Amino acid sequence: MTSEGGAPGAGSTDGRRAVVVGGGISGLASGVALARQGWTVTVLERAPSLEPVGAGIAIAPNAVRSLAALGIAEQLRDLSALQGEYGIRRADGGWLVRTDAQEAGSLFGDRTLVLHRAHLVGLIADALPAGSLRTATSATVVEPGTDGRAARVSTSDGDLEAELVVAADGIGSATRTRWWPDAPSPGPADSTAWRFVAPAVPGVVGSESWGRGVVVGVMPLADGRVYCYVSVAHAAGVPRDLDELRDRLAGWHDPIPALLAAVDPGTVLRNELRALPAPPPSLAVGRTVLVGDAAHAMLPNLGQGGCQALEDAVVLGARVHPGPEVPAALLRWSQERRPRVEHVMRLSARIAGPTLWTSPVLTGARDVGMRLAGRWGAALGARALRPVMSWRPPA
Ligand SMILES: Cc1cc2nc3c(=O)[nH]c(=O)nc-3n(C[C@H](O)[C@H](O)[C@H](O)COP(=O)(O)OP(=O)(O)OC[C@H]3O[C@@H](n4cnc5c(N)ncnc54)[C@H](O)[C@@H]3O)c2cc1C
Predict the structure, then answer these.
(1) Cβ atoms of residues 298 and 305 within 8 Å
(2) Domain FAD-binding, which positions (predicted)?
(3) Segment (H or E) for 116
(4) Which of 43, 175, 258, 339 could join 31 via S-S bond, C-beta 3.0 to 4.6 A?
(5) Which is more confident, 163 or 11?
(6) Helices (DSSP H) in 236-282: which residue ranges?
(7) Domain 17-82+106-186+275-356 maps to which CATH number in 3.50.50.60, 1.25.40.10, 3.40.47.10, 2.60.40.2310?
(8) Which of 169, 226, 232, 308 to mutate to test the pocket of ligand 1 (most atoms within 8 A of CB)?
(9) Cβ of 229 less than 6 Å from ligand 1
(10) Residues 230, 204 contacting (CB under 8 angstroms)
């Protein structure tokens, strides 16, 4: 993974300097997209190295095309794509919604890929120009570049001036808090999530299974290992540790108990889920923009947080070029991106709703409704997802 040290230069470089705060998926992808359009990019990441948290990640067709637009197409061929039948199951394994990966692939124009986060972050970081990533560098946007001024970013190594600042500093974005003081803050989602990669077990079919306030996702990776996520609504009573989680899911369908039994406890991530209620009214202030979770942290139920971050980056590269028009181009970028990310945030929240239900009556009615809807229901779901998944990067 690329990781360059060294002191940043203080001044602006020939009107093409773009500074990116944050080296997660959105910051790295923004750096690649801008560098491809002639910007001199510096990506500042406060962590000492790129050690991405989060076990696996699903990359939906819209984001597969975004990665291709960043020049990361060749490497995608080797990654695992969802295959055969997949869909939503009950805790006992009965199918509530069943679909076929090939069919979905033709409907949305590409397949959904599942890969280890470290793999994705490594692919994007390797596409950055050499020397453009500075780890162990905490950064603060001290001037967003309003009223014709250059933007300024203060770092632990000195200050940087920039014609463009991309704030990709995640859900807790200090840039958002400081320069978007009226923006809504992240709120709790009343749910706890576990993520891990388990060793290979035979007969794994990609699926998400819904119980009473519990969701379990199972997704095979290209190397045979299995990416799993579990979310438990607080109302369902949150297991205190992995052993309690194993006990809670002991009666669930195969291979869930076996995957939980096989995982190394030291590799299991646990997070309280949070999300922004909406993106700020504008994603641009002067020469500074918010991207990724800093702009639109959403519930993970649609698996689109990282995908939208990749879209942000690709559209930024396509629409904002070095020159006198940067602030106006950033406003137009915001007008293009904001309605889309708000739609995806809302859709994610709508899908999350019934997964938090714990009442046997409500979840029973939910399951019967989904089963009765059958293929018609799956087609309706696909229709709702189509505008999200069929998105294509600007030419
Ligand atoms: C349980 C779960 C499952 C998910 N599954 C999926 C999925 O399958 N598909 C999908 O697309 N999305 C998924 N997501 C969402 C996805 O993980 C996020 O949307 C994505 O990682 C956001 O990336 P980011 O770069 O915007 O933010 P982050 O990953 O939070 O990166 C922000 C970076 O900025 C750095 N930083 C912060 N402040 C500073 C500073 N002052 N100076 C320098 N650096 C700084 C941080 O160290 C960090 O590296 C999931 C999320 C969760 C919680």
Answers:
(1) yes
(2) 18-347
(3) strand 113-116
(4) 43
(5) 163
(6) 242-248, 256-262
(7) 3.50.50.60
(8) 169
(9) yes
(10) no
Q: Residue 256: which of 224, 235, 230 has the closest Cα?
A: 230
Residue type present at position 225: R
* 138 CA closest ligand 1 atom index: 42
**Alpha helix ranges (H) inside the chain:** 25-36, 61-69, 101-108, 117-126, 174-179, 242-248, 256-262, 293-296, 305-319, 326-355, 360-389
Cα separation, 180 vs 231, whole angstroms? 31
Rg (CA), the chain: 21
Return the closest-CA partner of residue 44 out of 153, 126, 174, 149.
Answer: 153
Joined tokens for residue 38: 């002639």
Question: Does ligand 1 come within 6 angstroms of the Cβ of 309?
Answer: yes
> Can you point out the beta strands (E) in 199-318?
207-210, 214-220, 226-233, 269-275, 284-285, 288-290
Query: Which DSSP letter does residue 11 get?
Result: S
Find all residues with CB under 8 Å of 166, minimum gap 6, and list them.
18, 19, 20, 21, 27, 30, 31, 34, 288, 289, 291, 316
Question: pLDDT tier at 3 (50, 70, 90 boundaries)?
Answer: very low
Kindly report, residue by residue over 14-70, the tens digit of the pLDDT: 789 999 999 999 999 999 999 999 999 999 999 999 976 668 999 999 999 999 999
Mean pLDDT, the chain, integer: 91
Three-state DSSP at 134 gives strand
